[in-house]
Amino acid sequence: MPKFAANLTMMFNEQEFPDRFSAAAKAGFDAVEFLFPYDYPASDVSGWLKDNQLQNVLFNLPPGDWAAGERGIAALPGREAEFRAGVAKAIEYALALGTPQLHMMAGLIPADADLSLHRKTYLGNMKYAAQELAKHQLNLLLEPINTRDMPGYFLNTQAQAHELRIESAEPNVKVQMDFYHVQIMEGDLTQTFKKYFEGIGHTQIASVPTRNEPDDGEINYPYLFQVLDELGYEGWVGCEYRPRGKTEDGLGWLKPYK
């Protein structure tokens, strides 16, 4: 049976971030993920996890200037020093929170960009981050993001991500398969998941096209959850969706799996 992690950046937004941990636990979740923990001391976030007997399964490396619209810097030439400082900061938080894997956001690139230069930068930063994380038995995750939600993002398909993963030759590099993004960009979810199964470190869910609860839209999630079980997927399923209303009111889809 799949293991579900509440995404506290998108779920339980009726409450302030510190209070979302207890809300997730009361709703029946054993684990959580979120975009970034850096607005709070690591000791505080660790305390919220422990107080509610929750595991943190994922967060992102620092993304650059998020408020100004940046969405990662791993593929941006000239930002290597900032990227390396972000890796160190993320590792510090991961060790404090007991987080086993970190996602490296690639960043936005211009339409007329030199793709070979951005690719070289991304691969170099990936190898650096993977080697630093490996010192602490942590995994590095890559996630393709669809071009509709995030135009200009460097990494868009599972094929791209797995090609880079293999080229890096770093055993602790894995790929995130967010079924929402994959459906929009590629479709053929079952066969794509089976094809790349060995290289997938984390999955995420949301309805398509609205990115709400996984109980409507064009993806048959009960079937996909059955596929995950049949293949022996042991990772977490992150619930990275925007609730249609109050978060708790939309959790009926979860009841069969608890």
CATH topology: the name is TIM Barrel
**Name given to the CATH architecture:** Alpha-Beta Barrel
Provide the spatial order of strands within the biggest beta sheet. 1-2-3-4-5-6-7-8
Mean pLDDT: 97
Uncertain residue ranges: none
Mind describing the biggest β-sheet? 8 strands, parallel, barrel
Q: Give the N-to-C terminal Cα separation.
A: 9 Å
Structural class: alpha/beta
Give keywords.
single chain; 258 residues; TIM Barrel; eight-stranded parallel β-barrel; 8 strands
List the helices and strands and how they pair.
Elements: E1 3-7, H1 17-26, E2 31-33, H2 42-51, E3 55-60, H3 80-97, E4 101-103, H4 115-134, E5 139-142, H5 158-168, E6 173-178, H6 179-185, H7 189-195, E7 200-205, H8 221-231, E8 236-239
Parallel strand pairs: 1-2, 1-8, 2-3, 3-4, 4-5, 5-6, 6-7, 7-8
Helix pairs in contact: 1-2, 2-3, 3-4
Notes on the protein architecture:
The protein has 258 residues and is α/β, with parallel strands linked by helices. The protein has one domain (3-257): TIM Barrel (Alpha-Beta Barrel). The chain is built from 8 helices and 8 strands; from the N terminus they run βαβαβαβαβαβααβαβ. The protein has helices at 17-26, 42-51, 80-97, 115-134, 158-168, 179-185, 189-195, 221-231, and strands spanning 3-7, 31-33, 55-60, 101-103, 139-142, 173-178, 200-205, 236-239. It has an 8-stranded parallel β-barrel with strand order 1-2-3-4-5-6-7-8, surrounded by 5 helices. α4 (115-134) links the parallel β4 (101-103) and β5 (139-142). The longest helix has 20 residues, at 115-134. The protein is globular, with a radius of gyration of 17 Å.
